[in-house]
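Methods — Computational structure assignment.
A single polypeptide chain was analysed. Its primary sequence is given first, followed by the predicted tertiary structure written as structure tokens.
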Amino acid sequence: MSKKERPSFEEALKRLEEVVNQLEDESISLEKSIDLYEEGIKLSNICTETLEEAELRIKKVADEHADNNKE
């Protein structure tokens, strides 16, 4: 995952699922596990931020709709 390119929510979630599946493999090394864990945290943060942004957008639209109905 490039620092310049931010994956979409769907891409990040899919990759996060892959990371989790790899972490469940007991045969991977500790070093690989740590690398995957770090990647998973970054992906989780991307997903959380994206969902928070979506929630704010939805709230804004709902508030605007409510204001328009008051008039």
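Note: Helices lie at 9-23, 30-70.
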